[in-house]
Design a protein that fits this description.
alpha+beta; 2,3-Dihydroxybiphenyl 1,2-Dioxygenase, domain 1; eight-stranded mixed beta sheet; four-stranded mixed beta sheet
């Protein structure tokens, strides 16, 4: 199963985040070293989804904050995803032969692959033959998505996947991008999505997310869909 999603923060922010977890009553595991340049803190959200903060000095991306977290301590984005497998070899073959990844690190039963050796691009396979197979539902991650520049490169990937005798969907139009889906040898659902055209096709970049956007086939049902949605509010002062 796709077990853990990790987020990147500065190495100097460890004490800040531990204090923040304590302040807000968030249960977490003690910091542990993973590779030589990483310190990891594991915790879970309210649905049981596995999350991590990875403290490192490799990530040069700027952090994001609404203002209640100092910029120097803010999250920079994804760091890696973690997949638990009975064995790593077949999934490793898919990543390296069809998805242009290479093995960049390994330690114990953890094997790290990336198409680009930078935070945000790491896929960790953890060999865990005794773990139970994950089932879809609350507390699980549905799929992992990989980016490809355009439909031409996407079609090339699709042909590679078919040649590996894996069942893949046709190219599906998602309005903001196109996608293909297939299950890797261990059963985790993979998506390969184009980087464009992007979310600005029907909204100005400065107003993204201000209104509900629906696929054309669902527009006739807009009234009933909007009435069924639970409003979402974010009181950031609550988390100062």
């Amino acid at each position: 199963m796709l077990n853990t999603t990790s987020f990147s923060v500065a190495a100097s922010s460890l004490d800040y985040w531990l204090s923040r977890f304590e302040k807000h009553g968030i249960t977490y595991k003690k910091p542990s070293a993973r590779f030589d340049d990483e310190m990891v803190v594991y915790f879970e959200d309210t649905d049981g989804v596995g999350l991590e903060l990875v403290f490192n000095d490799r990530d040069k991306r700027p952090g994001f904050t609404y203002g209640h977290i100092p910029p120097e301590h803010s999250i920079k984005g994804f760091y890696n995803v973690e997949i638990w497998e009975e064995g790593y070899e077949r999934t490793a073959g898919l990543l390296t032969e069809q998805l242009d990844h290479v093995l960049i690190s390994e330690k114990g039963n953890r094997f790290r692959f990336a198409a680009k050796n930078e935070p945000g691009n790491f896929v960790d396979i953890v060999c865990s033959p005794d773990s139970l197979k994950g089932l879809p539902g609350r507390g699980s991650v549905h799929h992992i998505a990989f980016a490809t520049p355009d439909k031409a490169t996407q079609e090339k990937v699709r042909i590679r996947i078919l040649q590996r005798m894996l069942n893949t969907t046709p190219i599906l139009d998602r309005n903001y991008f196109t996608s293909i889906y297939f299950r890797e040898p261990g059963g985790v659902l993979f998506e390969v999505a184009t980087s464009g055209p992007g979310f600005s096709v029907d909204e100005a970049p400065g107003h993204l997310g201000e209104s509900l956007k629906l696929p054309p086939q669902f527009e006739p049902q807009r009234d009933s869909i909007e009435k069924a949605l639970t409003p979402i509010t974010l009181d950031i002062t609550k988390y100062d």
